[in-house]
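Morning!

This is the sequence you dropped in the shared folder:
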Amino acid sequence: MTKQINKIFLCIIFALAFLLTIPQTPQNITLAQTSARAMCVIESQSGRVLNGKNISQKLAMASTTKIMTAITAIENCKDLDKTFEISPKAVGISGTSLYLRQGERMTTRDLLYGLMLISGNDASVAIGEYVGGNTKNFVNMMNETAKKIGALNTHFDNTHGLDSKTHYTTAYDLALITAYALKNPTFEEIVSTQNIKITNEAGKTRYLKNKNKLLTKMEGCNGVKTGFTNDAGRCLVSSCKRGHMTLVCVVLNCGPMFEESQTLLEDAFSKYKLYNLTQGYKLPKTIQVEEGRKEDVAIGTNKAEYLYPLTEEELSKVNYVYSIEKSLKAPVEKGQEVGKVKIFIDNDLHFEEKIYTIESVRRNSVWEKVKDLLNNW
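The structure's back. Tokens below.
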């Protein structure tokens, strides 16, 4: 009996430990719901989860895979505008296609538009072969990039997202990957493009129209990618930028993916605003100096920004705690550490930085006075 009780106790401990590792959504806030199997809305700069459902469940993600394909290619291709020859391995890939032909020559940049706007599976293979040497190496690069980003519950088997048992992600990981990718101007430019024409080296032109309907329906929408397979269902990763705040929304296996993503994003924008919390500092301008040529010394911080999304209720719970030396003994050097400031939100520490002197104060001594006279003379 005692052994059974111990086992139950250990199971409870492990379950609690697992739950603590999952990014938590805000409490006591009424948030929009979704029919998606999994969903996650984050603020891109802080990575804060604003809304979520099954955010750590491993699921198929279809062509939203191509977000990682694109950013891996952009970061590892030396010249996006150099043409290369399409190999036979990139021709005739099942699913959505750019209808590439063996031997035609195209640039990586044009193939990225074909990849992200119309979801060309053949474009993904061509890119992988060219940038990685072969698709196996390129997929390894994709997985390494995922680890670097912190998407630890994600694994890629291919460049396009066609169903595979070991090809999966989570709504949270995919949001992290997208927020990372959007920091790259080339990636953002491509995924926010509504229409474009691309031309191969022989002059053949293809006209591409972005499948992401939110680009024309929603103010500030700047991407990102649709997807569908039998295992994954309908998937959408969307991004919207208003003012200084960018939100990323992921819905996996969601029938009305455009409609629900728009509702989720609008709801998050209505409840959260992005605040630079370091603007709320109330530091003293100076602290006292003993035996100095001046009675006090100016102090300050490195003027770092800490941007964080908060509701109005949460903003009222922001608290600043200062620990600063009451006085210093001369001589005082510029850049001397004199304290710290910490930012708490509802008793949770979110940010801290050091406070420094921003000028020097020499010692008030006879010898210093003599040196002053000599220098002036």
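Headline: The first strand starts at residue 38 and ends at 43.

More detail when I'm at my desk.
O.
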